[in-house]
TrEMBL record:
It comes from the Bacteria. PROSITE patterns: GMC_OXRED_2. SUPFAM superfamilies: FAD-linked reductases, C-terminal domain (SSF54373), FAD/NAD(P)-binding domain (SSF51905). Signal peptide: none annotated. Pfam families: GMC_oxred_C, GMC_oxred_N. It comes from Halomonas dongshanensis. This is GMC family oxidoreductase N-terminal domain-containing protein.
Length: 564
């Protein structure tokens, strides 16, 4: 189930055509595509270890991977005023497969309007929805097309088959969640059979990145085959300290700095590895701006404060951080089968384990959230601006025990937050964590959406389909009704849904805060691209893993075209 290092040569003073930094969601696909040409020598570098931890592969194992130093960087946010001074854990994958090894496995592309907006921002039609759809389909292996004839025309128009990235339906359902879906429909949210056709409005069970009841991460999908190629080298457990630049010509007034490679710590030695063509950053919306700043690329004043020599003043590096803040409403229910009750006894836990062992079904096969819904917080929005993740369980906070009573959790997030945060250095030490400041709920619009979203949750739970369960609002509590009260409670109970984007945003050269151009080349630096969630100018309307794969698919094609 794991990918391994296939490099047998000395690594000191070696060179490759391409160096890909980060073997996460984007990096695994990128390395696969670049090494498909046997003439390209490709090195993929990952700071984390192999993905051979068994809990990575059992779907419910995310519970044991998040906040675990074996698989998670253990980042924390700075105390956040919008969260009433609270700090949050901020999980980021630290293993082959990156966040695809610890995330919720939900396959979600977002809305067509997300990509059409990107195209307007960067002035490039290649980012429009109709031009992104082929890149989603290129690596997709969708279960709807498994049957002979590959499904109906509608499925073929929107989904791919035979690619590396497996998409399946979930292997369990819950009567109480079926009734939540019925209640959502009664509240005016239509049923849908596919969230991924450009408009995700509706309610349905999520589709997931699994294969036969196992998590399907990008290491399994894209590295297993690539590791057999003699022109592909993988270094895991290897820390990249900084990017290396040729600046002599630039300092003499010529051209611009060129990224010539990376400095790494490998097997206790600090060495420099050269990239003859390009370095591609795929370290994620936290890792990529952190590494750029450590390397002297970013806001000049901040870099000087940290004692780092400025290679290129690029003010947007680390700015524009966006994330989906989820607000978790908990409802106690009666006469309902929920995980709280099933997992409360040794016999129940044994039954869960036996079912998964024998059939790869049941609670151990489930994603963190099973039922999804997209709707509007108010009539002021012409498009769905809320996403629900509904779970047949409840707890006080992640990592704490399940409540001792039957309950469900309806988490809602603002899909298009206007709040913006940043990522900055805490230290010039590459091993030190970055400073992460999301600035949740820092705009009036976001605070209003938060209050309205809690009212939408109450409207759904108050429908006739839920009456037989006599749902009782435990969190935040029905006594809170005003905008002010609900916004404060949102700050008390809100938490990240782990979707940071935007910190190396693409934009036109005239935009002083843009970090990369429309083809993801870093402004003012040659030989360097970024292909991860950080390049999103605005966050997508849904989970961000699948859009990140699409970004890497496009970038790999452009890189190969540039070298042909």
């Amino acid at each position: 189930m794991s990918a391994t290092n296939n490099d047998k040569r000395s690594f000191d003073k070696c060179s490759f055509d391409y160096i890909v930094v980060g073997a996460g969601t984007a990096g695994c696909l990128m390395a696969n595509r670049l090494s498909a040409d046997p003439n390209n020598r490709v090195l993929l570098i990952e700071a984390g270890g192999r993905d051979n931890y068994h809990w990575i592969h059992v779907p419910v194992g995310y519970l044991y991977c998040i906040n675990n130093p074996r698989t998670d960087w253990l980042f924390k946010t700075e105390p956040d005023a919008g969260l009433n001074g609270r700090s949050l854990i901020y999980p980021r994958g630290k293993t082959l497969g990156g966040c695809s090894s610890i995330n919720g496995m939900i396959y979600m592309r977002g809305q067509a309007r997300d990509y059409d907006h990107w195209a307007e921002v960067v002035g490039c039609g290649e980012w429009r929805w109709e031009n992104c759809l082929p890149d989603f389909k290129r690596h997709e292996n969708h279960y709807r097309l498994d049957a002979e004839g590959h499904g109906d025309a509608a499925h073929r128009d929107f989904h791919g088959h035979g690619g590396e990235w497996r998409v399946e339906k979930q292997r369990l359902s819950w009567p109480v969640l079926d009734d939540v879906a019925a209640a959502a429909e009664e509240a005016g949210i239509p049923r849908t059979e596919d969230f991924n056709r450009g408009c995700n409005e509706g309610v349905a069970y999520f589709e997931v990145n699994q294969r036969n009841g196992w998590r399907w991460n990008t290491s399994k999908a894209f590295l297993r085959g690539a590791l057999k190629r003699p022109n592909f080298t993988l270094w895991h457990s290897t820390q990249v300290n900084r990017l290396c630049f040729d600046t002599a010509g630039f300092n003499a007034g010529q051209d611009q700095p060129r990224c010539r490679g990376v400095e790494v710590v490998r097997e206790g030695a600090v060495v420099e590895v050269a990239a003859l063509k390009e370095v591609v950053l795929c370290a994620g919306a936290i890792g990529s701006p952190h590494l750029l700043q450590l390397s002297g690329v970013g806001p000049a004043a901040h870099l000087r404060e940290q004692g780092i020599e400025v290679v290129h003043d690029l003010p947007g590096v680390g700015e524009n951080l966006q994330d989906h803040l989820q607000i978790r409403s908990v409802y106690r229910v009666s006469k309902a089968k929920t995980l709280n009750a099933i997992a409360s006894t040794l016999w129940g836990k044994a039954g869960i384990g036996w079912e998964y062992l024998m059939r790869r079904t049941g609670p151990m096969s489930m994603a963190p959230s099973q039922l999804g819904a997209f709707t509007r917080s108010s009539e002021a929005y012409a498009h769905p601006n809320l996403q629900y993740h509904v779970q047949p369980l409840s707890l006080e906070a992640f990592g704490q025990p399940l409540h001792p009573y039957p309950a469900i959790t309806a988490s809602v997030c603002n899909l298009n937050p206007s709040s913006r945060g940043r990522v900055r250095l805490k230290s010039r030490d590459p091993a030190a964590p970055p400073m992460i400041m999301p600035n949740y709920l820092s705009t009036e619009e976001d605070r209003q959406v938060a209050a309205d979203s809690l009212r939408v949750t109450r409207r759904i739970m108050g429908q006739a389909a839920m009456a037989k369960y006599a749902p009782e609002e435990v969190k935040p509590g029905p006594q809170y009704q005003s905008d002010e009260e609900l916004t404060r409670l949102a700050g008390d109970i809100g938490t990240t849904i782990f979707h940071p984007v935007g910190t190396t945003a693409m934009g036109r050269s005239s935009d002083p805060m843009a970090v990369v151009d429309a083809r993801l080349r870093v402004h003012g630096i040659s030989g360097l691209r970024i292909a991860d969630a950080g390049i999103m100018p605005t966050i997508t309307s849904g989970n961000t893993n699948s859009p990140t794969l699409m970004i890497a698919e496009k970038a790999a094609r452009w890189i190969l075209e540039a070298s042909s």
